Amino acid sequence: xxxxxxxxxxxxxxxxxxxxxxxxxxxxxxxxxxxxxxxxxxxxxxxxxxxxxxxxxxxxxxxxxxxxxxxxxxxxxxxxxxxxxxxxxxxxxxxxxxxxxxxxxxxxxxxxxxxxxxxxxxxxxxxxxxxxxxxxxxxxxxxxxxxxxxxxxxxxxxxxxxxxxxxxxxxxxxxxxxxxxxxxxxxxxxxxxxxxxxxxxxxxxxxxxxxxxxxxxxxxxxxxxxxxxxxxxxxxxxxxxxxxxxxxxxxxxxxxxxxxxxxxxxxxxxxxxxxxxxxxxxxxxxxxxxxxxxxxxxxxxxxxxxxxxxxxxxxxxxxxxxxxxxxxxxxxxxxxxxxxxxxxxxxxxxxxxxxxxxxxxxxxxxxxxxxxx
Length: 373
Ligand code: NAD
What we know:
The chain is α/β, with parallel strands linked by helices. It folds into two domains: 37-167, Rossmann fold, CATH 3.40.50.720; 172-318 and 343-370, Dihydrodipicolinate Reductase, domain 2 (2-Layer Sandwich). The protein is 33% helix and 21% strand. The protein is built from ten helices and 16 strands. The protein has helices spanning 7-17, 52-62, 77-86, 121-130, 145-158, 172-182, 211-214, 218-234, 322-335, 346-365; strands at residues 24-25, 41-48, 67-73, 94-95, 111-114, 134-137, 162-164, 189-197, 240-245, 260-266, 272-278, 283-290, 293-297, 308-310, 313-315, 369-370. The longest helix has 20 residues, at 346-365. The chain is globular, with a radius of gyration of 21 Å. It binds nicotinamide-adenine-dinucleotide. Nicotinamide-adenine-dinucleotide (NAD) binds next to helix 2.
């Protein structure tokens, strides 16, 4: 599970980082029977950016056992007021993008969760780190691998933790396909098909279609999940990629980013994956073909509920609140003063970003691009 067995080395690591937690107390009756050192505490989280996904996260935080929504950062005064009222946030815990740095003085906030357009992740993550707060950042981590490296360095320099908001790493169906692939339950996986797409309104004014804010189209927004699932099911890093941009449906539309892209990854074991990320049609599925059978999910990557089966029969797991689960797992680790598990750290976001950059290069050049570590 999430907490590394080598607790001693984790503790030593965090003692070196000198991380202090100012977690809020929970009422006694909500304490659980197991006596974790942090039991009865919750990590105080400030959401940076109050858009659609932050709304899901704010609601999920209401039922989180280990995290609490304690602060807001927004550029829209009316949202500061309405969200402040709805979630009972004290006015001193509400910031805007100009005074965000003052959060350094606020002992009621432990973590800043960055949920703004992709092109702003780097700026707000680094400002939060410099203010001494742990950082959670939404996918994709930033616009380039170089930006990701700067974010990782800033968090290291500040002695704070940097987590990716990778919700699927805590989801039971995904934990299972990871196990089936990595433990070779059906033998070596040879081929993965995983794709995600939605038919959406292509409004050039929407930040998703502005390169400076999005960094790209559906590859950045949706394809990152396809890359992730191939990497964690195989437990390998891709070594090369070929890719093709999909055709625009409305050729008269002037958009700054692709509306569809298909790519093929090669892995050291010889396994290959093929994926499409698209705004032109609906698709949400994962299929792995292995030497002795198959496993698949459909729906696979969205908010669920997921369904799946293997060559031996149906998969059946509880449908969970992915956002609540993610926050509880991250909360537990940070409250315990342990380093985050490697698969949800900034380094993991960086690995994905290197693959995304290689996919774009392959699509632009028409060449097979090797991926360096
Ligand atoms: P959104 O457009 O609904 O919200 C973006 C928020 O950022 C808004 O509140 C907006 O006011 C604010 N903002 C601040 N500066 C801005 C600027 N210069 N231009 C535009 N908006 C600005 O977007 P969203 O769907 O909530 O996505 C936000 C982030 O969350 C993205 O990085 C996205 O990839 C990620 N996301 C993750 C998931 C997931 O499942 N993990 C799902 C959806 C979105």
